[in-house]
Description:
By secondary structure, the chain is of the alpha/beta class.
Amino acid sequence: MEVIFHGVRGSTPTAHAPFLKYGGNTTCTEIRSEKYQFLFDAGTGFQNVEILKDRQVYLFFSHFHYDHIQGLPFNGAIFDPSNSVTISSGLVKADDLKHVFTRAFQPMYFPIPLVETLKNLRFTEFDVVQDMLRLSSDTTIDPIKLNHPGGASGYIIREGDKKVCCFLDHEFGGDDNIDLKLISQAQGADLVIWDGMFLDSELVAKKGWGHSSIEQGVSLAEKSECKKIAIAHHAPNRTDEQLKELENNLPSDAMFFAAEKMKIII
Length: 266
């Protein structure tokens, strides 16, 4: 598997020079396997994704806050009717998912009715996607509940003996049962993608906002003994200089900050 980060900011994109080394686009992560292209969320980083024609393309949404959906109409490849994209979510049913995007991208908020226009976007039940994968490969994807206002779903992707966990938009420390499940699922993972929006010192003022800290990511990595952890969903006001200083103080080279265009082979 190959993991590619197309957007690593949270909340809102930042286009100013001090933010561009790690990247200013909002959340979008790609995982490529031999048969599949998996995309997780469509923040503004989605505009830079190459939609592959030689494998099945799936787009999974963790939830529907603006920073996770706002890039969907700005990748020109989805307007190519020959590009079929299966859209699904572990959070809601397919009809509800379709309704979200029908409302979000219609003429009151967007120039054209996107869902009605693009028949190549196929909204599909998550369990149907799971069955399709099981029948055609040794690749599996499972949802896991996250602690986030309005709800959110994380994902665990397995292919053979490889495992990647995507745990973005989770507030660690708000629900012990969820936290324990995340630690359990991350056990021995080849890569965990972690929400490091805040610092521990910022958590009190941001209680209930639905995000974790960098330090909590370090703790999860140590408890789960995962092989690597990529800390992402960087605060939009956190400059490259600040991020670099924080990254330099991480206790292990296996812990690092995700940056746009970063590629990791699993």
